[in-house]
Amino acid sequence: MAAAGTAAMLSACGTYGVDPGADGETGTVTYWLWESAQLPAYQQCANAFQAQNPEIDIQIEQFGWDDYWNKLFTGFVANSAPDVFADHTQRYGEFAQRGLIVPIDEQVQEAGIDLDAYVEGTTDLWIGPDGKRYGLPKDFDTIGLFYNEGMTTEAGISAEDMKNLTWNPQDGGTYEQTIAHLTVDQNGVRGDEPGFDKSKVKTYGLGLGSSGAPFGQVEWSYLAKTTGWTYGDQEMWGTTFNYDDPRFQETYAWWRGLIEKGYMPPLAFTEGGSADQQMQAGRYAIVSEGSWQTANYGNLEGVDLALAPTPIGPSGKRAAMQNSLADSISTSSKVKGAAWKWVQYLASEECQSEVAKAGVVMPAIASTVETSKESLGKTGFDVSAFTDQVEQGTTFPYPAVLNGAEFQSIMASAMDNVMAFNADVDTLTAANDKVNALFTTSEE
């Protein structure tokens, strides 16, 4: 319903009547972001920027994820959007298509910005469906496995075992074996032992956050991609999608099967608390999660956690989705000149070095990665589980799409039904047809 509502609001913006704003070089620049943990670091950047540019005042506002997008869509409709806002690859394509954000190709060229200075793959994520650039990457993320080290030690599973997990959609490989062994019922019987009671589980071997629709960034993407499956006909801005592919449906069926076996909680269980809370309470032994959660998991008290890379799949390699956030300039801004100066600074080595030292996210400027590793290393995690995949070329880009709100609504509903056992996995074929129809209609 939320996706449908935001789609309606965005449609109301249309492609005409957008306030063109102005190119003011001075004045107040409003800046929005959703991540509270990153706010202090970006406030430090704002303080430094204002010292260098006393004619520009940066006003930062932070909102939670859901409120953020609702407020932003409302702002677009009312021509009261912030001058600059943290943007996501899932969202910006439609903003660009409707003329709501500013392409920055000319500014990047005039400023002589070296795009090769960024972590490989991150700059490509911000080239829109029209071939224009709408952002400079300010961070990057990948996926890994956080696990309860006390539980693995007690179960006789070493850190080396966790680093070398294998997976396939037929029997789950050593990944499923490990998940099963770490699952424990209320009588202390493990999931791979006789007498295990799946109706009374104390600790699930693998945690569940959601059905993952439509991209399964932290839930199942790292598995499906190792089968050779692709989201669509193109890595980004595809128009034909492959949720009907047997390789995907087999992967999804395996993943759902963990619930049937009692190794992963039912979808309704996720309403009882977030994955990190369940981890802290000892309800989950392993959670597949994004690198942006490193500091959060590192701050959990009363539990010793470690980090492992995603498992090696049928391709003989690992896989992890790579994404990057950037900052977009609203077309309606009255101070687009000043806004560009701020965006350029946010993506600079000076600001990203400050963010790297904060140890809450990995900045996208390649020269800051080592600082980021050291800062995040203070959490106790070996973050090479994330960075090695980038260096080894086993990452794949976040599959940006147009018609994103409708896409999300269709696939989220279909996948929620499958994971709740209200529908079979093969019903994803019909959902795939609906998604493809969005693009057929657009082309017509």
Describe this structure in words.
There is one protein chain. This protein has 444 residues and is α/β, with parallel strands linked by helices. The protein folds into two domains: 2-140 and 324-364, 3-Layer(aba) Sandwich (D-Maltodextrin-Binding Protein, domain 2); 143-322, Periplasmic binding protein-like II (D-Maltodextrin-Binding Protein, domain 2). The chain has helices at residues 2-13, 39-52, 65-77, 92-97, 105-111, 149-154, 159-163, 173-182, 221-224, 246-261, 275-280, 294-298, 336-346, 349-358, 369-377, 384-392, 404-419, 428-443, and strands at residues 27-33, 56-62, 84-87, 139-140, 143-148, 184-185, 201-206, 284-290, 305-308, 320-322, 326-329, 362-363, 395-397. It has a five-stranded mixed beta sheet with strand order 6-7-8-5-9. Helix 2 (39-52) links the parallel strand 1 and strand 2. Helix 1 runs antiparallel to helix 17 (404-419), helix 14 (349-358) runs parallel beside helix 15 (369-377) and helix 17 (404-419) runs antiparallel to helix 18 (428-443). The longest helix has 16 residues, at 246-261. The radius of gyration is 22 Å and the shape is globular. Mean pLDDT is 93; it is low at 1-9.
